[in-house]
Structures are given as structure tokens and as C-alpha cells.
């Protein structure tokens, strides 16, 4: 047995002489008084109360601790709801969104809270890797200039599939997405329709369908026609100069200033023309070694160096209305004949030009109607006495071989155009003043996309058609490089830009006409 600590030696043993414990923890000293027993009264029974008799019980029971009063219950008519029913805040649980990092092989690694994912993370990582590998194949031409494109679109695509799927359908949804990636056309530019996730591609296709469904009519475009005063400020010719015109179609044998090298030269046909060195690109501002320098777009050489990067004949360009009128006469389009006239209300027009002994002359004319349907596309032969100096193939797309097939002169082309359009027709184009000048047409009902989408620096600066189509329509045009432009493609691009402008800038005006019905 363990030795006692004597903690109760000051207390008398309750059993005193009758204690049988071998080692009692209490004291057996006779000098200590006996402890008083705890006596608890016993409540009288109902029968005893009825008889008027009460008894005391001598039973000893432990004393009870007094009960703590419970707080009063809140009444139902209180202005404040119970605490457990009160809203402690409006913050919602965050939705898990996938993020990624790249491993050594470039495959994106999924970073998402496993507790919030309905699909096991290893399964999602496997599907993400498979998507990434197929985006790598799809973007083979884009990755050299956009190395992170495949990883960015694969992580975005996986998240799109996950958001639209359940735990049971996720794997099959990814497999179907991969099959769709295999069917896509290989993109050649960042703005190609095949670039992006399935949602991006679907949105782009729907946008193009909406554009194609919108037929441009006179009523719809009336508000976009530029006032004649504005056209004149932007360089349009709004009146026919005096004189019959066409009295001096060629400048052969006379002195002119070269548009390319700015030197004066004797105008000769291409076989006899003297060669000049020039830059075919335009100068722009760039930073080289932290300094702002003007360089050429064609070769990136500083403008201050002079010289040129290309060789070709001297050519000249005339801009005064009197000079152009003397080469070939200006005129208005023919007036409308009757209400039953079949001529078109709206067309988009574009021209390609070449250099000649009569200056910059039209060599191809293309026209599409308000629905985007090609209605006219012809090469133009130079007038009698006018010889070609330079076919300007890099921009015009005209070569000696296809120019040899041209059989219509400008006068014949004008007659053909008069059968399609008239004074009331709305002409759409980009920098349309240049096309009208080379066609020798004076027209007042014009919509110019260079004015609808002005350059941020204001006139005389203009945004290029190629940049506008890429930015607004997500398409690439004029991609043939040195092979030149297509006037049909450019005319269709300007028509779609006007459609885009209406759908995005004037939605309230065409709410009932987007379905494809002419307004």
C-alpha cells in the first residue's frame, strides 16, 4: 500500500471507535469533535399535507448546487431574427478556376483546388496534356511568333469543357473537343478563324454569319452618307472642271517628277524608262537603341540614310483635278431612268492602278452588291497613245501576262458601270476618292470606311484597309505579298466593315433587320 499524505488528519473519523480501516486517513484523536451529519428535509407528501402532519427525515443526502437560470427565450415579434438565422455576409464561395504553369517539356500543369474539382485532378491533367499536344499541331505556323499560344488556349479549352460537363461526361467531352481540333483548318495568321477555343471559333463563325445575313440597302445606309462638304475637305472632287477634257492623254517625252525618288526625269514607256532606286514602303517611327528613328516599312532602314532598297523605272503621279481631267475627262454617273430601273442601290467598289505615260491609271475594277455578290470585275486597257511604265505588281496584282488579256478601255468600262449604277447609287469603298479619281467619276453619295474609322491622328492620316479588316472582322486580306492585292477581296472587305459598323454602332436602327431581310 502507498503511504498516506495526512491531508485528512485534522478531521475526526466519522466512525470513531467502529472504524475497521487498517490505515484510516482520518484522525482518531478524542479531542476532535465528531462531524455533523448532513440532514436534508423531506417534503411532506400530499396525504400528509391533507392531514396537517409533517415529518422530518433523518436521511443524509449531498447538497445540490443551485441551478443557473436560463436566459429568457426571444419572442417571435422581435425586430431582430435569431442569431443563427442572421446573414453574416454576402460573400459567395469562390468558383475554382484553372491556372497553369509549364513543366520542362512545355506542357501546362493544372493548378486547381482538388477539393473543389468534381473530376480527379490526374484525369484533368491527362486531358489537358492531350489538348495541348493537339493545339501544338494546329498552331505549327504560329508558334514561332506566338510560343505561348498553345498552352494558353489548351488551359482555357480544358476549363471550358469542365464547366459544361459533369463528372461522368467530362472525359467524352474532351475527346469530342480533340476531334473538332483535328478537323480545323491549319491557321496561317493569329486572326485566322481556326485560332482559339471551341467557343471562340463558334463566336467568330456566328459573327460572320450575322454579317453575311445583313443586306445593305439605301434606307439602312442613308445616315452614313458623307455630306458633300466633308467629302471635299477629304480630297474628293465634287465638281467637273471646265473644258472637254482628255486633250493630252500622255506625258511621253515631257519632264515629270518621279514619285519614288523625287528626281525629275523624261517620261518614257517601260522598255525605254530609266531606272531609279527607291523604297516601296512607307516611313514610320521606331525606337532603335532608345532613340526615336524614322525607318521604312519595306527594309527597316533609317530614312536618314537615303538611297533605296528596290529598283524600277521612274514613275509620276498627278493629283490636281485639271491635270487628271486633261488625261481623261471627268463625268457624273448617268441619272436614274425610272422606278423600274434595275440598276443597283448599293455597291462596294475597288480599283487597282498601274503607272503609265498618262500617270497613275486604273487597270482593274471590281464591284460587289449590297449582299456581297460580285457583279463586275474587269481589267482595263490603257487609252490610245498611253503606254505602261510599271505594272506596280506588288500592290496592283497586275502582271504583263494578265494585262495582255484586257480588252476594255476606260470609256468602255464606264459604259458598263453606267448599266449597273447611277447617280442615286450609294458607293462604298476605302479611300474611295482615289478610286473615283482614277475612274474619272464625280459622285456625291459615298461611304468611305477610311472616314468611318478615322485615324487617331486625324486627317490626312488614314488607317489601312488591311488593319481595319484584321481588327474589326478578325480576317486577313492582302496576304499575297509581292503578288499584289485583289480588288474583289478589298471591295468585299469594305462592305463587311460597313456591316460591322452598323451592327456595332447602330444596333437600335436595325433590330428588325439582322435576320437577313433587307431593311
UniProtKB/TrEMBL annotation:
Residue stretches of biased makeup (Polar residues): 87-100
Family listed: Belongs to the REXO1/REXO3 family.
Subcellular location: Nucleus
Chain residue ranges for the region called Disordered: 60-100
Keyword Nuclease: yes
InterPro entries membership: REX1-like_exo, REXO1/3/4-like, Ribonucl_H, RNaseH-like_sf, RNaseH_sf
Domain Exonuclease: 345-507
Domain of life of the native organism: Eukaryota
Name this protein carries in UniProt: Exonuclease domain-containing protein
Assigned keywords, A-Z: Exonuclease, Hydrolase, Nuclease, Nucleus
PANTHER family according to UniProt: FI18136P1-RELATED, RNA EXONUCLEASE REXO1 / RECO3 FAMILY MEMBER-RELATED
GO CC annotation terms, alphabetical: nucleus
GO biological process assignments: negative regulation of gene expression
Molecular function via GO: exonuclease activity; nucleic acid binding
Pfam families the UniProt entry points to: RNase_T (PF00929)
Amino acid at each position: 500500500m502507498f503511504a498516506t499524505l495526512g491531508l485528512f488528519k485534522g478531521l475526526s473519523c466519522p466512525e470513531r471507535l467502529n472504524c475497521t480501516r487498517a490505515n484510516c486517513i482520518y484522525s482518531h484523536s478524542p479531542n476532535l469533535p465528531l462531524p455533523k451529519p448532513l440532514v436534508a428535509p423531506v417534503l411532506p407528501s400530499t396525504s400528509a399535507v391533507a392531514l396537517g402532519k409533517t415529518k422530518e427525515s433523518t436521511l443524509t443526502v449531498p447538497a445540490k448546487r443551485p441551478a443557473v437560470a436560463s436566459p429568457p427565450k426571444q419572442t417571435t415579434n422581435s425586430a431582430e431574427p435569431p442569431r443563427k438565422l442572421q446573414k453574416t455576409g454576402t460573400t459567395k464561395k469562390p468558383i475554382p478556376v484553372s491556372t497553369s504553369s509549364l513543366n520542362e517539356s512545355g506542357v501546362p500543369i493544372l493548378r486547381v483546388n482538388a477539393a473543389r474539382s468534381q473530376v480527379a485532378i490526374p484525369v484533368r491533367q491527362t486531358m489537358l496534356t492531350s489538348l495541348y499536344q493537339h493545339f501544338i499541331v494546329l498552331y505549327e505556323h504560329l508558334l514561332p511568333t506566338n510560343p505561348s499560344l498553345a498552352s494558353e488556349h489548351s488551359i482555357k479549352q480544358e476549363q471550358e469543357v469542365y464547366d459544361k460537363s459533369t463528372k461522368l461526361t467530362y472525359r467524352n467531352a474532351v475527346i469530342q473537343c480533340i476531334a473538332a481540333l483535328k478537323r480545323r483548318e491549319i491557321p496561317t495568321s493569329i486572326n485566322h478563324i481556326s485560332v482559339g477555343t471551341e467557343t471562340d471559333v463558334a463566336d467568330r463563325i456566328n459573327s460572320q454569319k450575322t454579317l453575311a445575313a445583313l443586306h445593305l440597302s439605301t434606307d439602312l445606309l442613308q445616315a452614313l452618307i458623307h455630306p458633300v462638304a466633308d467629302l471635299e475637305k477629304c480630297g474628293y472632287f465634287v465638281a467637273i472642271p471646265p473644258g472637254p477634257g482628255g486633250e493630252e492623254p500622255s506625258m511621253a517625252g515631257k519632264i515629270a517628277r518621279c514619285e519614288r525618288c523625287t528626281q525629275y526625269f523624261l517620261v518614257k514607256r517601260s522598255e525605254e524608262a530609266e531606272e531609279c532606286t527607291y523604297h516601296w514602303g512607307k516611313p514610320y517611327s521606331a525606337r532603335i537603341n532608345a532613340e526615336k528613328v524614322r525607318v521604312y516599312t519595306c527594309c527597316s532602314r533609317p530614312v536618314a540614310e537615303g538611297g533605296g532598297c528596290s529598283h524600277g523605272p521612274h514613275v509620276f503621279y498627278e493629283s490636281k483635278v485639271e491635270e487628271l481631267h486633261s488625261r481623261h475627262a471627268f463625268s457624273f454617273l448617268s441619272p436614274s431612268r425610272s422606278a423600274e430601273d434595275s440598276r443597283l442601290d448599293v455597291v462596294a467598289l475597288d480599283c487597282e492602278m498601274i503607272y503609265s505615260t498618262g500617270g497613275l491609271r486604273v487597270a482593274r475594277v471590281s464591284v460587289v452588291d449590297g449582299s456581297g455578290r460580285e457583279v463586275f470585275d474587269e481589267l482595263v486597257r490603257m487609252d490610245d497613245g498611253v503606254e505602261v511604265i510599271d505594272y506596280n505588281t506588288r500592290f496592283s496584282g497586275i502582271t504583263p501576262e494578265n494585262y495582255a488579256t484586257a480588252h476594255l478601255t476606260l470609256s468602255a468600262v464606264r459604259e458598263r458601270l453606267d448599266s449597273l449604277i447611277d447617280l442615286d447609287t450609294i458607293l462604298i469603298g476605302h479611300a474611295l476618292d482615289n478610286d473615283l479619281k482614277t475612274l474619272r467619276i464625280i459622285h456625291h453619295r459615298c461611304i468611305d470606311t477610311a472616314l468611318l474609322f478615322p485615324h487617331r491622328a486625324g486627317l490626312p492620316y488614314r488607317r489601312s484597309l488591311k488593319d481595319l479588316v484584321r481588327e474589326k472582322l478578325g480576317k486577313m486580306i492582302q496576304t499575297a505579298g509581292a503578288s499584289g492585292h485583289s480588288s474583289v477581296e478589298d471591295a468585299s472587305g469594305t462592305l463587311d466593315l460597313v456591316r460591322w459598323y452598323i451592327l456595332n454602332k447602330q444596333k437600335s436602327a436595325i433590330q428588325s433587320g439582322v435576320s437577313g431581310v433587307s431593311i
